[in-house]
Design a protein that fits this description.
elongated; 36% helix; 3 helices; mainly alpha; single chain
Length: 94
């Protein structure tokens, strides 16, 4: 039976100070950043807030079936493209 090599203990490189040294431990924790409460620790949920200029409004719009089918056939982002066409028409009309 062959012997396995003895493992070498790993160094505690992630320990910032000697836990047995009370002064060093207190000095380390004195530099720690204090938190103001649990709210800052909670994960933000949902989509981030948009700027006022980027907000969109949901409406009901009736368009011809073939127009809608054509836009949908363009693939993902068809509503964004339809919005861009409407903006371009608005800007050209001024």
């Amino acid at each position: 039976m062959s012997k396995k090599p003895a493992s070498v203990p790993t160094q505690s490189a992630d320990v910032p100070c000697d836990p047995a040294d009370e002064k060093a431990t207190l000095a380390f924790w004195a530099t720690a950043e204090k938190h103001t409460g649990l709210e800052e620790l909670r994960a933000k949920r949902g989509r981030p807030k948009k700027a006022e200029a980027d907000l969109k409004e949901q409406i009901a719009l009736r368009v011809d079936k073939e127009v809608l089918e054509w836009y949908r056939s363009l693939g993902a982002g068809w509503q964004t493209r339809m919005n861009a066409v409407l903006k371009a028409y608005r800007d050209a009309s001024l």
